[in-house]
Amino acid sequence: MLDQNTTLSIEWIIKQDSLSEKSLQAWNELIHRSAFVTSTNSVEFNLNGLPLMKISKPIYVLGYSSVAEQNSPSIKKLEVAFILVQKQKSFMGFKFTLLQTVSHDHVDMISILGAQYLNDAKCVASLKKALNKNLQSWSMLSARRLRSIEPIKQQLVSPTYSRESAYFILRDLNNNELEIKNIIPKKLYKNIARFERKIEKEQQGTLQLVSYTSKDDIDTGLSEFFKIEASGWKGKIGSAVQNDSQLETFYRNSWETLSVAGFAKVFVLTTDDKAIASAIAFQSKDEIILHKIAFDEELAQYGPGSILVKKIMEKVIDEEPVKSICFNTNPPWLKRWHAQCYNLVALQVFNSSLKGNIIRSLFKIIDTLRTIKRQIKKNDKQRKNK
Q: Does one domain contain both 219 and 144?
């Protein structure tokens, strides 16, 4: 988090047309030096296979700091970058203009590059001023499912929106690799190792983890994942990626884009030539995010999904410089793994205009009513349990 006494000022550039090559290069450099990023940080992020900038009139928000060096002019450095779209909304019968961060419906969380600067009151005030100068009468800026690595000021987040994403630390404070036995519970580790022996005996083959990362290979890895996912219950009810050509195009195009930058990963667990589990993921400077996991449900009794996650952890610890593995969500099955959790919040920045203040008040009323409703339910549940 930024020091409360920080004097760093951010100069905001709001653009509604295409970015220059210089800006694109600065954006990519920011992604590469940022410890935690998600797929939506890419300026080339797409919706259903089409480049974002071609279909939704994106608003690019770029925040620069000025770094003064001795005996030389100050250098502008990109610190914050995200994409917004402008929408007309109605809330309690009151119409207003919403600025919303861009994400695909199947992306479970987003991040804002440089979100820590939103802890600085001067930066937020200057951002609102820049938005007012460049955009017509907006009332609210919103970012739902925003991963909060460092706590964001309570005034800027919804008090009633709460989600989590699970993660595991792979290295200690001195950047030394941790042993897998010290990352997950020892009893769980022994159980998974026992399942590994059983599945190798059942399938008469050795378990191997294959990692696809290059642009030439990523499509092959995705095909393996889609095939495994479609073979189970998701395929039967029609919710597998392979059942939706538009969604499949989104994943193939997005992961191909990520592979060009060296961020894409697809893991496939095999016993000899048979694929039994797979995960699609992407990597930032300090982290690998497991986006989706699928496994052969005929082998469910042996926990192939758990074996896959354990194998990925071991491979990453041995071969990658990353410090953590994260999941887009916090599924119930991860509770027995004793994972740590990031908070996913709903960022809410209201304009200081009359309409912005009215919208702020309406949201505050609804949040208060929701809080009261939750407390009543909690009290009722406690009384029933007595």
A: no
